[in-house]
Design goal:
The protein is α/β, with parallel strands linked by helices. The chain contains 20 helices and 13 strands.
Length: 433
């Protein structure tokens, strides 16, 4: 098959990283693959992942259109970042295809897209969520408030899903909204990811040193860093024996806030800001425990949690969303309602029995290596494409019948009656496969 895959390609994109793995696996299966970069124009010149195939920017319209016209299927990697996915939205409208959905909250993607399209955006909001939500949607003053006010009432999952001929996602917890919006089939498969710096001996107990706890990625409030500091500070044994390390991009105001909190609380906190891949890999290898807490949880899968398990690290997660679906024996789960106390218990348990971190990390590593593979993902994509293409034909037939009924001036109420719906159920393509 010839596949045209739309994805962010910039090196800093985790979605680009997983797509590189999948593309290279598809190439070994003898498929022809063309990758289209989807970042906003000012990012297109930055260094990209090496996909091993033709790479074009989405702005090269004639070339992209030519590749799309000769493709068996278009595949769109979509997440909640407008600067990374601007071109994906543009081409998804022009050439619908399979959406690989990485987040079940797409509010930031939508807000970025809506900046120059406010009337169209308001129409979409009203269509899916009603006039009351539309009236207040753009009023939030900051990201935290915006997420809190819209993540349940208007996540915009439906907006992207409704444009897809089928959807592949990476956990089941957010699938209801996809099924409400996408006429085609839905597939759930584990995210593909790797840990190139992982070694089997990395999780051996490190003598009598302090227990090293690590949080990686963009440092923000939903990573629950303040809760980790509070849990460590609540016990003198933990204060003496835990070193907490943050590695990732952080705003100066957040860095000051966390540093001051740690100082007042008597917690050893090391903030390294954003680092290169080699330094990040070294930090992960050196850690005993990795905190991948998220609240609220918005993603279909967590690359950082998967990476932590692939490195063989004891991984702390919030018992919600994607993380809740990880088998209990492979991670340490924390309740969002009892966060600090649960963290305190976990830290004390790991401190009192240092070997337990290595034990759970090794189990998680073995499971993750079998689960989050490019081979699994490529096989699922190969299975999905013919199902989606068949569904596309059926959906076209249904659209034809709907057009005829509309020309008969049938009311929406009539179209919802059992006499109409039951015969049309033979065309149902809206299922989880």
């Amino acid at each position: 098959m010839k596949l045209v895959i739309f994805t962010p390609a910039v090196k800093s994109s985790a979605i680009g990283r997983m797509t590189r793995l999948v593309v290279r696996e598809l190439l070994t299966h003898q498929h022809q693959v063309v990758v289209i970069r989807t970042e906003s124009p000012h990012l297109l010149a930055r260094e990209s992942h090496d996909f091993g195939c033709t790479l074009l920017p989405w702005t090269s319209e004639a070339e992209v259109a030519q590749e799309v016209a000769s493709a068996d299927c278009c595949v769109y990697q979509i997440g909640d970042n407008y600067e990374f996915h601007e071109g994906g939205i543009v081409w998804l409208v022009r050439a619908p295809g399979i959406v690989c959905l990485h987040d079940f909250f797409l509010g930031h993607l939508f807000r970025g897209w809506a900046q120059q399209r406010r009337d169209e955006a308001n129409h979409i909001l009203t269509q899916w969520y009603g006039t009351k939500i539309t009236a207040n949607y753009f009023s939030a003053c900051d990201s935290t408030t915006f997420i809190r006010e819209t993540r349940e009432s208007a996540p915009l999952t439906e907006w992207i899903s409704s444009m897809a001929t089928g959807v592949i996602t990476h956990s089941a917890w957010g699938c209801d909204r996809i099924l409400q919006a996408c006429a085609g089939p839905l597939f759930v498969t584990p995210l593909a990811y790797d840990a190139p710096g992982a070694v089997d001996t990395a999780n051996e107990p490190k003598g009598n040193r302090k227990l090293k706890v690590l949080t990686i990625g963009h440092i923000n409030s939903n990573k629950r860093i303040e809760s980790c500091i509070e849990a460590i500070s609540s016990n003198s044994l933990l204060r003496r024996n835990i070193s907490y390390h943050l590695v990732g991009a952080i705003l100066p105001s957040m860095e000051r806030k966390l540093s001051e909190l740690a100082t007042v609380s008597g917690v050893e906190l090391i903030i390294s800001n954003e680092v290169d891949d080699a330094t990040l890999s070294e930090a992960i290898r050196d850690a005993d425990v990795i905190s991948c807490l998220r609240w609220p949880s918005l993603e279909a899968a967590s690359a950082s949690a998967i990476e932590a398990m692939l490195y063989g690290k004891a991984t702390i997660v919030t018992n919600t969303g994607f993380y809740k679906e990880i088998p209990d024996q492979y991670v340490l789960k924390v309740s969002s309602d009892n966060e600090v106390e649960d963290l305190k218990k976990i830290f004390l348990s790991l401190q009192n029995k240092r070997s337990s971190a290595a034990d759970i990390g090794k189990q998680a590593q073995l499971w993750a290596r079998e689960t989050f593979t490019a081979e699994n993902y490529a096989r699922k994509l190969e299975q999905a494409i013919p199902v989606v293409l068949r569904a596309k034909v059926i959906i076209s037939a249904v659209d034809h019948f709907a057009t005829i009924i509309d020309k008969w001036s049938a009311s929406p109420e009539l179209l919802r009656t059992p006499e109409i719906l039951e015969p049309l159920s033979i065309f149902n393509t809206n299922t989880i496969v």
